[in-house]
């Protein structure tokens, strides 16, 4: 059966995600009930992207837009024909914020490809994971964006991305502290400051803390402080995330399990903050989100 664009339109909702969560660099992730929504219509003319919210006037509005590039990659992967596309994006996830906006855009485009074709099962979750990880370079945001919940994702020696769900208490409170927009930092820049090798003691430290975090998420909140310690990436990024690291340090001193979300600058706290702490952050221009954990991942709507 040849693959066709059999639907006149498709729409998708994709969650924001965090990655790393302290010790799980490039592997741990979690999805939030905080979403971008994207819709598409194949057209005979050129591709036009319209944007509401985050990225207006900044992200490309033609075929070079990441959502469109992912959509086209999805169609190519299953042998579907290409077309021009009218794409409408309602963006809420900050760009360069450490909340997985680029993974979201790639997954959104791939899900839209699934939504347009006559045989959607060809573009299954695993193929979307592989293709979106190709755009990202690491699977940690892509995995929860596709599957929801908390995930551990890794890359096999043959280059294939793999994912397994991590048991998580879905009532665990989560706070995302988003600093003022002038602090946005691309993941590419944040990866440049990381060293190529780390001391063995630090690798051992993170191995134990990652295991502890798994236990903590599954229902041992008493282990959250130990389970969110990291020596592989956060400290190396201090020079490019000075305000976020200062906030993270201060919160940890007060007993909050705070980490840098993804490559920052958003700070993730696996707890509710006191009203006073929230007000202090807000007075300094920070946005405090309390979205809850998403358990569905990306869905066609
Ligand atoms: N909804 C979107 N539409 C188009 N491009 C996007 C979208 N979201 C992210 N991007 C692209 O990804 C970049 C941000 O990705 P990245 O640096 O990985 O930060 P993060 O994923 O932490 O927000 C943006 O500058 C933009 O180029
Ligand atoms: N493991 C990556 C995660 C990047 O997440 P993002 O949301 O900042 O894109 C890293 O730490 O570089």
Compact description:
The protein has 301 residues and is of the alpha+beta class.
How many H/I helical runs? 9
Bound molecules: adenosine-5'-diphosphate, the ligand N[C@@H](CCOP(=O)(O)O)C(=O)O
Gyration radius (Cα, Å) is 19 Å
Overall residue-averaged pLDDT value: 97
Question: CATH topology of the largest domain, anyone?
Answer: Ribosomal Protein S5, domain 2
Number of strands: 11
Low-confidence spans:
none
Which outline best applies?
Answer: globular
CATH class of the largest domain: Alpha Beta
Q: Strand percentage, roughly?
A: 15-25%
**CATH architectural arrangement of the largest domain:** 2-Layer Sandwich
Which structural class best describes the helix and strand composition? alpha+beta
The total number of structural domains is 2
Largest sheet: 7 strands, mixed
End-to-end C-alpha gap: 26 Å
**Percent in helix:** 25-40%
What is the ordering of alpha helices and beta strands? EEEHEHHHEEEHHHHEEHEE
How would you sum up this structure, described in words?
The protein is an alpha+beta fold and about 300 residues long. The protein has two domains: about 10-165 and about 295-300, Ribosomal Protein S5, domain 2 (2-Layer Sandwich), CATH 3.30.230; about 175-290, GHMP kinase, C-terminal domain (Alpha-Beta Plaits, 2-Layer Sandwich), CATH 3.30.70.890. Helices cover about 30% and strands about 25% of the residues. The chain has helices at about 65-75, 100-115, 125-135, 140-145, 185-190, 200-215, 225, 240-255, 275-285; strands at about 10-20, 25-45, 50-55, 85-90, 150-155, 160-165, 175-180, 260, 265-270, 285-290, 300. Strands 1, 2, 3, 4, 5, 6 and 11 form a seven-stranded mixed sheet that branches. Helix 1 crosses helix 2 and helix 2 packs antiparallel against helix 3. The structure holds adenosine-5'-diphosphate and ligand LJ64HWYM. Ligand LJ64HWYM binds near residues 20, 141, 190, 262 and 263. One of its GO terms (cellular component) is cytoplasm. Pfam families: GHMP_kinases_C (PF08544), GHMP_kinases_N (PF00288).
